[in-house]
Here is the input.
Amino acid sequence: MLIEVLKSKLHCVTVTEANLNYMGSITIDEDLMDAAEMVAGQKVQVVDNNNGERFETYIIKGERGSGCVCLNGAAARKVQVGDTCIIIAYAMVDFEEAKTFRPKVVFPRNNKI
Here is the structure.
């Protein structure tokens, strides 16, 4: 049996941009993606600590070293620039593996590693 578990997360990043005129997704600095073992196109959950919004979207690779965390399209309506968010990725793992699996949790400072 497979179950879904926390694979990795970026804990308390700051939204740097909200771009309503885009097809949708979240753009994340490639350094942040690497640190959290996330990849472009991956489904993630975004939790806004400022307003309680929780939603799913997919990742677009942002410029390395930029500190960019940009919500695009409809998701841009759910955040404000300056909000603190948690970006969460999940994985399907075997039930027995889940008992010992350890997620990758990253605590960026000012959106930098």
The helical segments are 30-35, 95-98. The longest helix spans residues 30-35. The beta strands are 2-14, 17-19, 25-29, 43-48, 54-62, 69-72, 84-94, 104-106. The chain is about 10% helix and 50% strand.
